[in-house]
Amino acid sequence: MSTPTRVYIARLAGVAVFDPNGDQVGRVRDAVARLRATKRPPEVVGLVAEMPMRRRIFLSINRITSIDVDAVVLGSGTLNLRRFEKRPNELLVLQELLDRRVQLDPGGQPGAVVDVAMECSRGGEWSLTRVAVREQTGRLSRRGHLHQVEWDRVRGLSGIADNRGTANLLAVLEDMRPADLANALQDLPDARRNEVAAALDDERLADVLSELPEHDQVEILAALDRERAADVLEEMDPDDAADLLNELPPPEQDVLLDLMEPDEADPVRQLLKYTPGTAGSVMTSEPVILPPDATVAEALARIREPQLSPAVAAQVFVTRAPQITPTGRYLGMVHFQALLREPPADLLGKVVVNDIDPLRPTTPLPEITRRMATYDLVAMPVIDRSNRLVGAVTVDDVLDHSLPRDWRDRDALTGPGTTDAGLDGADG
């Protein structure tokens, strides 16, 4: 695999990183450049790669044997898993330069950075050499001309960015899973993080908030106006919205709940009433619920809906009308594997099982964990004293509330470590 002498860095975002054995070890998230005291363009010293478990590490440019928009390949040597931390004289190219307001010389034409190219010299040194800048036309109906110019022809690349947009950074981040995007947001300065979060649509922001540590959730929500915050809460699963609201003072909870649509706020209000650490406090109030006269085919169609998480879609709960929580009398549940084995025209009432006692809203988390492990379940029903289904606890709910509160916070991850990852030698 050949390495081009010039690579535009935004095109590297998300590209897989492989070790010499061909095993994927992570994905590129940014490039690190070292600022120089002279007027020479910054030197690219390495890439930032995201590994499993959201750890971001530094890959020295000297360790990379091939780099292009299809793959980045590492040479031999120990892969240092110490969490990446930027040094004072370093620059994260995508994080700090994309969307930066700059001026082109000569003439001072204003524009915004959409990409930055790094280029390899004959001596093997990589530097930031060219900048792709789109002119600002002042007209909403027309995109400005795109210039690709030398680094020293652009003013405003150093210093603190002022009044940046978010379009180009969002374009780099758009294909990330919510958990990976949440991880990327944690790397941004608070003001930049809030700008990017606010630029996401309501549904996307709701998904990302659910993957962030509580303190980041609260800070991002507080940076939104209250109407927008209420709209985002409406897009969240009721249990996630309740967890987030639990981090706010009661008066602020009430304000946001009052701004939400009543049918979206009501299940959240109900979840907020339960004691923390119980089934009621961790359950989802929107599992898949169908009547006993629904067919197997209807149940399979329901669990195929793309917005359902795998844990929620793994089973159908069968109740008498109504089929919204709290439902009519709970009858039992059917796992999706059982649905696949039954004739499509059969009724759920014929295949439903109820041989495992449901949880109560007051069941404590350790008991839930023990029972789910005992019966190898991915979800359990929660019923009230009237035998009505009020929700379901899923395995992801249990994991989320069993781990330490700061498990999503990258700053709380364990410290340095190394792995040979099929390599030998020392990192540069």
Q: What would you say this structure looks like, in words?
A:
The strands form 5 sheets. Strands 2, 3, 4, 5, 6, 7 and 9 form a 7-stranded mixed beta sheet that branches. Strands 1, 10, 11, 12, 13 and 14 form a 6-stranded antiparallel beta sheet that branches. The chain has a 3-stranded mixed beta sheet with strand order 15-16-17. The chain has helices at residues 93-97, 167-173, 178-187, 190-199, 202-209, 214-223, 226-235, 238-245, 250-259, 262-272, 279-282, 296-303, 310-313, 336-341, 348-351, 365-375, 395-402; strands at 6-8, 16-18, 24-34, 43-50, 56-60, 64-67, 72-74, 79-80, 90-92, 101-104, 109-120, 126-135, 146-150, 154-155, 289-290, 315-319, 330-335, 379-383, 389-394, 418-419. The longest helix has 11 residues, at 262-272. The chain folds into 4 domains: 6-91, SH3 type barrels (Roll); 95-155; 178-273, Alpha Horseshoe (MgtE N-terminal fold), CATH 1.25.60; 289-402, CBS-domain (Roll), CATH 3.10.580. The protein has 428 residues and is an alpha+beta fold. Helices cover 31% and strands 24% of the residues. Helix 7 packs across helix 9 and helix 16 (365-375) packs across helix 17 (395-402). Strand 3 (24-34) and strand 4 form a beta hairpin. Residues 414-428 have low confidence and may be disordered. It has 17 helices and 20 strands. The radius of gyration is 26 Å and the shape is elongated.
CATH class of the largest domain: Alpha Beta
User: Shape from CA axes?
Assistant: elongated
CATH superfamily of the largest domain: CBS-domain
Please bin the fraction of helical residues: 25-40%
Mean pLDDT across residues: 87
- Main β-sheet: number of strands, strand sense, barrel status? 7 strands, mixed
Strand content: 15-25%
Write down the Rg: 26 Å
Distance between the termini: 22 Å
Q: Specify the number of helices.
A: 17
Instruction: Let me know the number of strands.
Output: 20
Based on secondary structure, the structural category is: alpha+beta
Corresponding CATH architecture of the largest domain:
Roll
What is the count of distinct domains?
A: 4
The name CATH uses for the topology of the largest domain is CBS-domain
**Low-confidence runs (pLDDT<50, min 5 residues)?**
414-428
